[in-house]
TrEMBL record:
This is tRNA-specific adenosine deaminase. The active site is at 48 (proton donor). It comes from the Bacteria. It is an enzyme of class 3 (hydrolase).
Amino acid sequence: MGLALQQARAAMQQGEVPVGAVVVCDDRVVAVGHNCPVGGHDPSAHAEMQALRAAAQVLGNYRLPECELYVTLEPCVMCAGAIMHARIRRVVYGAADPKTGACGSVVDLFAEPRLNHHAEVIGGVMRDECAGILQTFFSERRAAARARRLAQPFVAGEAADASSVPPSESSN
Ligand SMILES: [Zn+2]
């Protein structure tokens, strides 16, 4: 999970939501991946997808039944689907994701008896570190957005005056 966190930091350095993943086979790291949908113009470029794709290439097989996936954030529905298609043996994740988590937070696809693959899932490993990097990312992003808003009147060459009509409204 420490290696997955390193990947999450790499994502953060690129301005992506910091999530990292690692695929391990026989105690050997096969592939790593980090979240990069923005830079890659790819909605499927979640950390798990990147790591699964790389692992499948390394092992020359689209099935990865001997592999374990470590990821800093609870997988979403898309990634859970890819994990099932890859026949991953075990999934270990860090922080739960109350908005999109598909391992119990929103839905639990791995507990769904009508889906035929049931990987072992373990959550909460290094949860504080995994959640902490996300909290840092989003609080920094909010602070940057606030700073931009505060700077705007000066960029426009106007004093911050509550009575002045913004250009977007004066054109109506
Ligand atoms: Zn995902």
